[in-house]
Amino acid sequence: MSTPSLHDFVKKTTAKNRITFGDVRRLQRNILPDGVFDREQAELLLSLDRDVARADGAWVKWLVTSIVDFAVWGERPTGTVEGEPADWLRGVLTREGAPTKAGRRIAREIQREAMRVDDSIAALAPDEVAQGSEVAEIRIAA
Questions:
Q1: Whose C-alpha in 14, 37, 91, 125 is 20 to 30 A from the C-alpha of 106?
Q2: pTM above threshold 0.70
Q3: Do residues 49 and 63 lie in contact, with contact meaning Cβ atoms separated by under 8 Å?
Q4: Where are the domains of the chain?
Q5: Can you say whether residue 35 is alpha, beta or left, with left for phi > 0 and alpha for psi between -120 and 50 degrees?
């Protein structure tokens, strides 16, 4: 269950319609110092990402890292994002249609970090993955 302070944070931040660097620091230090540990928290944060018009760059970086860590290492079986956990994550990332920029980055980073990933997650960021592969090939060739 999420702490009331996360609910308060989401409510206040949504009302401001922006996430500042200070907001991200408060989240890291005071509200979720150990990261995301359940689906409810992940859903609240991804909903906040969709609902807020402006966000500091630190927000996307923190959100992506936190959700990837939870999805890959916090859900069972660890190291994989397949089956029901993949269905859940895809549903959250596409709840309002196409995934946000952060949602696409989450899908891409999960592909990089997890040992096995459901194709439905891979499909959320096909262009980014292809571009990342091309960059890797160029580096290897150079």
A1: 14
A2: yes
A3: yes
A4: 4-141
A5: left
Under a CB-based contact definition with an 8 Å cutoff, are residues 103 and 109 in contact? no
User: Would you give per-residue pLDDT tens digits along the chain (142 residues)?
Assistant: 455 599 999 999 999 999 999 999 999 999 999 999 999 999 999 999 999 999 999 999 999 999 999 999 999 999 999 999 999 999 999 998 889 999 999 999 999 999 999 999 999 987 644 444 433 333 343 3
Contact 59, 28 (CB under 8 A): no
Query: Are the CB atoms for 84 and 75 separated by under 8 Å?
Result: no
